[in-house]
Amino acid sequence: MAVTKMSEENIAGGLQWLCFLFSWALFAFYAFQFRRQTCGWEVIYIAWIEMIKYVLEIWYGDQSPFTVRLMSGAISPWLRYGEWLLTCPVILIALSRVGASEGNYSIRTMKLLTSDQGTIIMGITAALSTGNVKVCFFFVGLMYGANTFYTAATVYLEAFRNIDDDLKPLVKYMTYCFYSSWCMFPILFVAGPEGFGHITPAGSIIGHTIADLLSKNLWGIFDWWLDYQVKVRAMMRNEEDDEEGEEGEEGDKAMVLAAATPPHTATVILGDPQGSLVPYYTKAFAKLPAKLAVVDSFESLLDELDDMKEAGTKVDMCLVAPTLLEHQEFDRLKSEHDVKIVVYVEGLAAIPEDSLAPFRGRCDDFIEAPARGVMVDESQLAQVFYRHATSLVGPTASIEAHMAAQTAILLAIQADIAGLQHNNAAPTGKGTMQPTDSDRRSCGVHVLHLARIRCGRGGGAFTSVV
User: Fold this and answer.
1) pLDDT tens-digit profile of 426-441?
2) How many other CB atoms are there within 10 angstroms of residue 39's CB atom?
3) pTM for the full model?
4) Rounded distance between C-alpha atoms, residue 128 and residue 134, angstroms
């Protein structure tokens, strides 16, 4: 008997450590995804609370106040109930918008939260009671729980009907995981020390830890992946652009005019190992005369370049993540393929030139990457694109392609002039903004510099048009 008890305690301790480590790994992963704007707040919060709970349970689980010892001799695991109060409402908030966008809550969210609070409060009261009072409060809690299950079923059914067909199996897995794990809690309550004592405290810990792994960790992974897929697809389908400022509007005009000549396109390969920026750049390149291919690793990038070379397709530009610069064979891109390398960097404007200088020999250009909800600077992307798209502005490009590219360049310069004039304007006595003579001279110098940048290797053709 002692051997069995020791074996149960060892299993319980091992599962607690497993749940802690799994929660910690998920928290780190979700934190990274949250920084990339590809994760909701609910799953990262749940992983954080779960991680703290198991630290306390491993080291102080049998001590007060985490375990309450009643005058009747019974024990009540308050740490477990407190964790339920913190995590279950957030799980149900996430559940209430399964298959919908973040922040898309409804009256069912309120129903789920209300019934869940009733379930937990009735369950805690039952755990602290004895005799018929315990039974009464337990069944009242079951009634609240039944309402929670019914409301959750309506959410899952609606999500299953409205979501894309290839995501329907994921909704099924979430449903199975939710009901199988949440049904374990009342069963463990009745059989455990809080109920009729048919299983030991260690056995109760084993059962509750397995239920936590399913209901919080595994279900959270399903929820994150489904939410990510819904966000990406909604972004891909959304064809309406946000309102932009004057400079952004000029950039749009440039790309629209350039896209008016679809037979003249340049080929671009996007190397994004994380895949989080694919929808942003796909939407931006759709406005440019470009064919976009996407790869997720350096090896895939080389394979794509080799395949296109064999097919006789010229690749004008590779837009890659800075992590690919660290690959030991990165220089093969320049030595084996005649392609321009542009690196997207988050926070580029804040990086000193000295830090970028060592990498300039390995690539041709840098561009600001979208991050923390900031969309692609489409005007800047158009400028970099036309600077390096030799199929459009190179010596072998057609006259029509030259004209479309140069029109876009001129409009981009016009937008820069407007921006410089606005930023360099000085206040007058009447409260309006007028540029001074020195500002105009400074603006002229900047515009000449910008013109040289815009022309790039297409400078000869640009000069002929001007």
Assistant:
1) 444 444 444 444 444 4
2) 21
3) 0.54
4) 8
